[in-house]
Amino acid sequence: MTRQENKKKHKWVHKDLLGLEYLSREDIELILDTADSFREILDRPIKKVPALRGKTVVNLFYEPSTRTRVSFEIAAKRLSADVINIATETSSVRKGETLNDTGRNIEALKADIIVIRHNCSGAAAMLARHVNISVINAGDGWHEHPTQGLLDIFTLRKRFGHVEGLRVVIVGDIAHSRVARSNIWGLTKLGAKVTVCAPPVLIPPGIEKMGVTVKTNIDEALVDADAVNVLRMQFERDERNVFPNQLEYFKNYGITMDRIKRAKKDIIVMHPGPINRGIEISSEVADGTNSVILEQVTNGIAVRMSVLFWLSQATKKIGHEDID
Amino acid sequence: MKILIKNGLIIDPATNLEQVLDIFIEDTKILKISKNIDRPADLLIDAKDKIIMPGIIDMHVHLREPGREDKETILTGTLAASRGGVTGLLAMPNTTPPIDSAKNIKLLSGIIKKSAIVDVYIAGTITLGRMGKNLSDIKALRKAGAIAISDDGSSVDDAKLMLKALIQSKKEKMLVISHCEDRSLSKNGVVNLGFTSTRLGLRGVSNESEYRRVERDIKLAEKAASSIHIAHVSCRESVDIIRKAKKRGVKVTAETAPHYFSLSEEDVLDYNTNMKVNPPLRSKDDVIAIKEALKDGTIDVIASDHAPHTENEKDIEFEFAETGTIGLETELAVSITELVLSGILNWSELVKKISYNPARILGIDKGRLKPGHSADLIIVSPYKEWVVRKEDFLSKSKNSAFLGRSLKGAVEYTIYNGKIVYSIEKHKTLFQG
Known about the structure:
heterodimer; A: alpha/beta; Rossmann fold; 2 domains; globular; disordered C terminus; B: alpha/beta; Urease, subunit C, domain 1; TIM Barrel; eight-stranded mixed beta sheet; about 25% strand
């Protein structure tokens, strides 16, 4: 069977989307292909299809997030689903309802899909094991943020027409980044060549086993790069006081026009947002012609529509599935 | 009561015995071990194709009583022990209150006397309240009945204090058991540091946080010319340090737990909180090192580190979940499956690690089969396969890292002090009826 035929035959079987680590290349391509169709809808005057009519999507957010939550909300509404937003404080160990109980209650309320954002790695996986409805991981701790990974890959594919062979640099706090992990799993599965770049303290141990090249010099990393994905630097997270200081970081790793000029002419610059101007990226670059940052935001809706669509298909057929 | 056990393969490393013989038990003692015993008995057990060994002495058990009777009690813990073939265990002192005074030992002894169905030996704390600040009154603990001290769950950070503990314990003939963990290095970590912690996005615990402390405590023991026992060894570097220390004559002994030779960090990849233990499940290379150390004698003891926790404490986000797995009811089968059936240890070596050596290290006259000795023994079907199921556990808590696993080797009978305290047949009618 050719890959094209194989692709056509590919069926979505997952109840949940917990991370790109757990998807096959075919799964990812299926989501991207469908996202292509949904992307077109977004440019129509009437941006709504009935695919999820009668379905309820619950956004369960334990961490403050405007961008991802709104993106999921718009995506669900474009598909005609009903959307409920629950923003709650960080789940604590001893007080209040446990995450599993909250999940089971949402299930009892007859929701169809839970979109969860949580500060603990593995929270989405745990929830998915305890409910029979679909769970979408909208970011769990430092673990994964699969829809961000998918929209980044979608943006690359839209720009270059392919992902295989692309050289993608991810720069920033790799150690504490779920965006980095999802991008790495997804991109390497699709055959891109990924380089992660950060000061040594922000490179997590064993990362090269994920199939990436590690570089600590951004200028070296940018040579031949087709795209650079700039991660948000969260200096306030520096609990052990190991981060370089802001100015030093910007000097050594900041994506500036000077650096972009020395890179490939048509290099694209991505950022998961919200951007810290002058901290990890200069305003000039963020607003410049190489930047696709706002395109990512629009593409995010299409990708999330696709994910919501496929999960709603899967739940019709499959009850419960473990992540392995 | 007189019990005659016929035709079992008797394994007693103390006397190098490995032979098919009969055993005759009268009241609390073994009366005779020989061929063709033909005496009237109240109970005749046919042990053909079965192995008879001294009851397991598990020197690392958390019974949780007093204080956390919702997790385990002396009764449920010793019931679990009986199912696992354990006839004697050392109860760790991190209870509420902690076992740091003669008064608290008295309290604990009272409960043991009332409810334990196998031997429970008492470990006291090294420091008052396990706070690492002031030494417990080791002499008083000894006098009240403690046979070892440990701040298990924590390590004594203050080296001077640890040295003092070793010197005093030597005087009192008290065993010091060290939980080796440098918290300044392991701080907040929940899984093994490396690809696994990176993949899961969780904070990692380095091998270094363990072996640095192993190194320090061995040096302190050397200085004090005392003995020291290293609890739950999990990584290659610790093993290397202990091996070298033994070679140069340091009186160091070491234990590991079944999960450190049967599971690795990869078993945590689906965030299963039953796999969250301290020290964490390590790399495959560390697992190999632990097996080598068991084989060459660097690690003397297999102990369960039985750590019961309620479902509420385990069924939550990985980083918040309590640390530990229960192990009393699976330690023998895991050891048989992973060590004996794979050729790493022979039966006699296994019995040494799980019964004879811990008894010797603790200074108790157990772990042997000998006429005149108390009849603490187990009858084991060495190749019987069974699946670890939640509903079969006698422990009050069900947090087993081995749930769902198929294991070989089943305890048919546990005889303690001449009495049958567990039989698999009765257990079946209880739990499968």
